[in-house]
Amino acid sequence: MNSSALSSRARGPSVIICDSAEIQGDVNFGDGCIVHPGAFIDARGGTITFGENNIIEEKARIVNKIRGKDPTGRPIMKEMKIGNYNLFETGCTISSSEIGNMNDFNHKCFVEDNCRIGDFCQIGPKVTLPVGTKLPSNMVAYEDGKAMFNEENQAFETKKPKMKELCSILSAQL
Questions:
Q1: Which end of the chain is more exposed for a tag (fewer CB within 10 A), N or C?
Q2: pTM for the complete prediction?
Q3: Are β-strands 146-149 and 139-142 bridged in parallel, bridged antiparallel, or unpaired?
């Protein structure tokens, strides 16, 4: 683990954080999380808490920004919560948002500040969700600003074992 990652904490015996991942600030990982080489997680704007079995791929960026300053000049910080079984694909950027469970963030997508993502959502490749977007559960975001309900989305009990299997396979390879 990068020396700047010394304040991160791993919960659970099966958390894997590759040496070349860069982690700054207070980051908590649930059991089964995997952080790939080149991933960047910045919690200088407040703690980032990951649930279980999240996969953060190469060059994914998850940043919890400082939200301005209070009247006394101190930085305003807020915890960023990320649920269980989320997949952050290569090159995606997530900025100071709330993330539910079992979401797929496709490569090079960008989720701007203060977005709220429900459960079972998919953010398409190179899609940008603007500041303050609220994406309810079972939605697919495609092209900038467009979303549709995903009627064929896999049920929780179907997708959960697949993500656990993927985490196990990746753990064995790393």
A1: C
A2: 0.82
A3: antiparallel
